[in-house]
């Protein structure tokens, strides 16, 4: 990673110029073909694509309850204990997100209110590929459970040995017993359209690769989605007192995800940047996924040295990162400067992987600048709101003129008459 210096405008220009190459059109065309095939031929297409993309012959996509339990039992006690600890923290955090309906009876004869209702059926996508993510099972399923979703359908791509035991253990801990071993755009299509085996759902949540993200984007409207996620990313804001070894480790924690991951340091200290640069090389030397991490750092990693604190935060907010670490003296005092970030980690000991696994806030986060308008996955993603009203005749009489005036202003005569018809035979008093 090279050290870059300059003002805000110069660094933003560099980021934009060095952005990922746009292959979206090619990907979209491929995904459209997959979606069409699944819609038309159902399970037959799933069998074909699972063989093609995952190298696995699958005939029965649904895993039995016995297979899920076996996966749980074959998972080491240490992993099960860690998953249980994570579950406790995730539940305690997300319980506080629960929304309540309300009833408003402030006006005589008028009752207004809102119902908060859980979605009926949700599909959760748990990624596979170059890494395994039992933590994603917890992060997707537990908020849905807290929201009151009754039917959770989980899909995850199989490998030659099936679905990894750790993922099955996480599912068992969450109480998920409907799991299908299928992934990619074809899995998303199956959840959206339904097949002979896999049921159609109301909403799909969970991160995946570019094909999964594109499928969700194209199917939005056919089914609800949480967000369109891109590669993982982290921005670390640090001053001269930060620990370069800590920062390098945290940058690598994102870089090892995949070669498209983005790791960025923004600091006011060139000495710190040099220290981080040196630490990155040292820590890469024995990292198991060093090849992936090194490629990510070379293609999408940046060490920015900026003139002042304001430029640090201005640049970070322009990036709107998925993960933001603030390793600056008295970090809590700077929290109000954060305008756009998926999740914030304050201080030297709030390392990003803590949020990935155990702290409790959700790790399904907006990426690629979408933290400007998307939020982390939460309980609110698994509910819908329904309003209700009740009027007495006298209450309606007080509002009659305003409603009919507005209806006719919009040229909707039947709207106005729907109100007036209720008073045509009124000879005084309640009818």
Automatic annotation (TrEMBL):
Pfam families documented for this protein: Histidinol_dh
Any one annotated GO CC term: cytosol
Required cofactor names: Zn(2+)
One GO biological process term: L-histidine biosynthetic process
Secretion signal span: none
HAMAP family per UniProt: HisD
Function of the protein: Catalyzes the sequential NAD-dependent oxidations of L-histidinol to L-histidinaldehyde and then to L-histidine.
Descriptive protein name: Histidinol dehydrogenase
Gene: hisD
């Amino acid at each position: 990673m090279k050290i870059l210096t300059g003002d805000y405008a110069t660094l933003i220009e560099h980021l934009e110029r060095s952005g990922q190459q746009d292959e979206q059109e090619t990907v979209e065309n491929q995904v459209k073909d997959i979606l069409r095939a699944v819609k038309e031929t159902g399970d037959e297409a799933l069998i074909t694509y699972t063989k093609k993309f995952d190298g696995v012959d699958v005939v029965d996509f649904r895993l039995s309850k016995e297979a899920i339990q076996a996966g749980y039992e074959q998972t080491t006690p240490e992993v099960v204990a860690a998953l249980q600890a994570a579950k406790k923290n995730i539940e305690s955090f997300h319980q506080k997100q629960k929304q309540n309906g309300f009833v408003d009876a402030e006006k005589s004869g008028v009752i207004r209110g809102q119902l908060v209702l859980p979605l009926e059926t949700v599909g959760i996508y748990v990624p596979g590929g170059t890494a395994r993510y039992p933590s994603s099972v917890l992060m997707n399923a537990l908020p849905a459970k807290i929201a009151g979703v009754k039917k959770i359908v989980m899909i995850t791509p199989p490998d030659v040995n099936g679905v990894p035991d750790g993922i099955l253990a996480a599912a068992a801990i969450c109480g998920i017993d409907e799991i299908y071993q299928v992934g990619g755009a074809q899995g998303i299509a199956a959840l959206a359209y339904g097949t002979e085996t896999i049921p159609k759902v109301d909403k799909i949540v969970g991160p995946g690769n570019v094909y999964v993200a594109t499928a969700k984007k194209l199917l939005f409207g056919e089914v609800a989605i949480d967000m369109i996620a891109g590669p993982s990313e982290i921005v670390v804001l640090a001053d001269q007192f930060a620990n370069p070894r800590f920062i390098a480790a945290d940058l690598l924690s994102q870089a090892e995800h995949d070669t498209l991951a983005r790791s960025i340091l923004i600091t006011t200290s060139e000495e710190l940047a040099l220290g981080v640069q040196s630490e990155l090389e040292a820590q890469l030397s024995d990292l198991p996924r060093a090849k992936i991490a090194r490629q990510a750092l070379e293609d999408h990693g940046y060490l920015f040295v900026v003139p002042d604190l304001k430029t640090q935060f201005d640049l970070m907010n322009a990036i709107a990162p998925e993960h933001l670490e603030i390793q600056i003296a008295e970090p809590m005092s700077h929290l109000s400067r954060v305008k756009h970030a998926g999740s914030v980690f304050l201080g030297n000991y709030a390392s990003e992987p803590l949020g990935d696994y155990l702290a409790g806030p959700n790790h399904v986060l907006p990426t690629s600048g979408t933290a400007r308008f998307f939020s982390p996955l939460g309980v609110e993603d698994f509910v819908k709101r329904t309003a209700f009203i009740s009027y007495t005749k006298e209450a309606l009489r007080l509002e009659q003129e305003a409603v009919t005036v507005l209806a006719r202003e919009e040229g909707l005569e039947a709207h106005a008459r729907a109100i007036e018809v209720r008073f045509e035979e009124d000879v005084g008093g309640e009818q």
